[in-house]
Amino acid sequence: MAQSRLEKIGTIFTRVQGLLRGGAMKAEDKPIWYDVYAAFPPKAEPRFDRVAPEVPVKKIFYGEDVVRAKLHRQNKPQETISLLDNRRSSQSQQFVQIYQNLKTQGALDDQKIYETALDLLAEQRQQSRLEATPEEAAPELDTETKTQLLSDFKEASESQATKSSSPPTPPKTKRDAGVGINIDSLFKD
């Protein structure tokens, strides 16, 4: 059984067990899960032909899911979302927050709350667009870095315009002074 890779013959446990007994796998190379599986075997052996149990899938909805689905169905928010940016909330998150704030006040019915939240979101987005300036768009870059980037961009565009046959040499900056790596020697073959 150890020589077979077919999932229909035995289980992964019995195949690893056969490899260990036959000497094809060293004891130090055995998987981490092997000892746990041997100590606590499952009640039903995990075979390919075992019938899956009929378990009904529970529907899990939160109140905000219904509101968000209604927003996306009717208005289709068009924005680019970066999953790496945790500081900025998405348009649908802002809408749900406004909706929940209005709902806690309890003065309106659901449809009026939805329409009011849409209006407030539009006002908030318009106000944030007016307040944003190019300097605020990149506050983490200081003036020295911006000028360095601008000069690097100009150098690159000039070297690209000349279309010289030799590869352009990178500009020497403070960052390159202590590096000491010759890139050309890395890729010689």
TrEMBL record:
Residues 2-125 form the Small ribosomal subunit protein mS23 conserved domain. Residues 127-189 are annotated as: Disordered. It comes from the Eukaryota. It is found in: Mitochondrion. One of its GO terms (cellular component) is ribosome. GO terms for biological process: translation. Residues 133-142 have a biased composition (Acidic residues). GO terms for molecular function: structural constituent of ribosome. Coiled coil: none annotated. Keywords: Mitochondrion, Ribonucleoprotein, Ribosomal protein. The keyword Hydrolase does not apply. InterPro entries: mS23_dom, mS23_dom_met, Ribosomal_mS23_met. Belongs to the mitochondrion-specific ribosomal protein mS23 family. This is Small ribosomal subunit protein mS23.
